[in-house]
Amino acid sequence: MKSGPSTLLLALSLAFLVPLPIGAATDASDEARIRELWKLEAEIAQRKQAYQQLVRRKQIGGTVEDPRFEKYLTGFRRKIACSASLHYPEKARGKIYGEMIVTVSILADGSFEKARVDQGSGHKALDDGAIDIARRAAPFEPFPPEIRRDTDALDITRTWTFTYTEGTGAGADDPCS
Fold first, then answer.
1. Distance of CA 10 to CAs 18, 22, 119, 140, 146, Å?
2. Measured CA distances, 2 to 7, 12, 17, 26, 31 (Å)
3. Would you list the domain boundaries of the chain?
4. Residue-wise pLDDT tens for the chain (177 aa)?
């Protein structure tokens, strides 16, 4: 490959994934490479879209309409409550409380895929802590056969409320028991 301004532009284009306009190339081989990159980029986008359609994803909110998910959701809530009691954000402990809406995505084998805060509490420490709590709660139970038959990933959206409660010992209200 010859070096010069067009080679530098092509290299920068690849580095930043910004396609160069056809007129930016100084010779036919550069134009051919740019066209090939555009073609590959389009092919990758098509494959990504096809793959995303293969994942059978279900969303569950505050109310569960499908009874297959009730027991699973109960186990999920317990894992999150236990993780929250063990991993409440240190910066917020005893000082900051609040409510937020969080979506946790779980794969069929029970592994944590991702979590996001859909509506924040207004406190960055709590919002970041919620993501950490969800990650630390994993792994979750694998999906039972009745869920797995048509679901590869589950997005569970819930309102999380962090409040102050007296006492720290294990007991009847201990979410980890």
1. 9, 11, 41, 46, 52
2. 7, 15, 21, 11, 14
3. 5-54, 57-162
4. 444 444 444 444 444 444 555 555 567 777 888 888 888 888 888 887 776 667 899 999 878 888 899 999 999 999 999 998 898 887 777 788 889 999 999 999 999 999 999 999 999 989 999 999 999 999 999 999 999 999 999 999 999 998 876 554 444 466 787
Cα gap 80→58, rounded to integer Å = 19
pTM above 0.85, yes or no: no
R_g over Cα of the chain: 24
* Residue 62 CB partners (closer than 8 Å, separation 6+): 157, 158, 159
| Neighbouring residues of 146: CB distance < 8 A, sequence distance ≥ 6 | 68
Query: Measuring CA to CA, which residue among 151, 157, 153, 152 is closest to residue 134?
Result: 157
The CATH number for 57-162, chosen from 3.30.1150.10, 2.30.42.10, 3.40.50.300, 3.30.470.30, is: 3.30.1150.10
96/35 Cα distance (integer angstroms): 54
